[in-house]
Design a protein that fits this description.
By secondary structure, the protein is an alpha/beta fold. The protein has three domains: 64 residues, Arc Repressor Mutant, subunit A; 102 residues, 3-Layer(aba) Sandwich (D-Maltodextrin-Binding Protein, domain 2), CATH 3.40.190.10; 82 residues, Periplasmic binding protein-like II (D-Maltodextrin-Binding Protein, domain 2, 3-Layer(aba) Sandwich). The protein contains ten helices and twelve strands. The strands form four sheets. Strands 4-3-5-12-6 form a five-stranded mixed beta sheet. Strands 10-7-11 form a three-stranded antiparallel beta sheet. The protein has a two-stranded antiparallel sheet with strand order 1-2. The protein is globular and about 60 Å long.
């Protein structure tokens, strides 16, 4: 077997984490075709089938899981060396992973999280999938499920409510036109809801949750969105009551071993304060602005 580059292994990890070529392409900046080609080349070089392919995405085989576990250990060592190098230079990087909409909120309020006076760099990773912190994939993450891993520490950050939204004053004209993320990319409950409840009325399918907001604004149909996104938008209105079954808690999560790192603690504390300042909107209690 010829030596494989780390980039090939990184592509494998992206597919494993994102569950498909589309998500891996978005995470890596490569095209889906390039991602698929790298996976095929890796399988050929390994002499093993690493993924089971289906219409809903890529799932690791037992051989793929074995490679995944080994690569996570390698990645953790590499990240640790890089952090050590940065500390020696007086600069560090804090890696934050969150879903589409919390990332959107952070970007709208970036000065509350990171400023030019801070001695660290902030790396934001957008993913709807649950972040893995045990192998130092990220330093701080937002999760919709309370972590059970003993090495992690968490802080509850309130509830998140969801509702269907449409262009303001559209009325019932859009009642049978639903917007949805593709089934392959619908990894969160609110993204699966249109497929499970309104499958026969889905008019437009996109690959990224962020496009749902743009389409709803344009009047293309109705979309399920977090209330802190939909209620903040003056061009949207709720197309019904809160979808109670989608409500969930959220937690800010970090590695217990990192609790004394000032940069990680600073970002975690600021993120907590930002989310708490929007707690009414997150829980769907505040009326929309006009």
């Amino acid at each position: 077997m010829k030596d494989m580059s780390w980039e090939s292994y990184r592509t494998f990890l992206d597919v494993a984490r994102q569950g498909g070529l589309t998500g891996a392409a978005q995470a890596s900046g490569l095209s889906p075709a390039t991602v698929g080609r790298r996976i095929l080349q890796l399988e050929e070089a390994m002499g093993r089938v690493l993924f089971q392919r289906s219409q809903t995405g890529y799932r690791m085989t037992a051989e793929g899981q074995a490679l995944h576990d080994r690569l996570l250990a390698m990645e953790a060592i590499a990240r640790g060396i890089e952090s050590w190098r940065q500390e020696g230079q007086g600069t560090t990087t804090v890696r934050v992973m969150a879903g589409t909409w919390v990332t959107w909120l952070v970007c709208e309020n970036m000065t509350a999280i990171c400023t030019g006076r801070d001695p660290f760099r902030l790396d934001l990773s957008v993913s709807e999938r649950r972040a893995t912190l045990a192998h130092r994939e990220v330093d701080v993450a937002l999760r919709a499920v309370e972590p059970t891993e003993p090495a992690l520490i968490s802080r509850p950050a309130g509830d998140v409510a969801y509702a269907a939204y449409r262009r303001r004053n559209a009325g019932d004209a859009l009642a049978d036109r639903w917007l949805a993320v593709s089934e392959e990319d619908a990894v969160s409950a609110y993204l699966r809801w249109p497929h499970e409840r309104m499958g026969g009325s889905i008019a437009i399918v996109v690959s990224r949750p962020r496009s749902l907001l743009d389409l709803a604004r344009s009047g293309a149909g109705q979309a399920v969105l977090p209330c802190f996104v939909g209620d903040l938008d003056p061009d949207l209105e709720r197309a019904g009551e809160e979808i109670r079954e989608l409500r969930h808690h959220q937690w800010i999560v970090a590695n217990g071993e990192d609790r004394h790192r000032r940069d990680i603690r600073t970002v975690s504390d600021r993120l907590f304060r930002l989310l708490k300042s929007y707690s009414d909107l997150f829980s769907g209690r505040r009326p929309s602005r006009t």
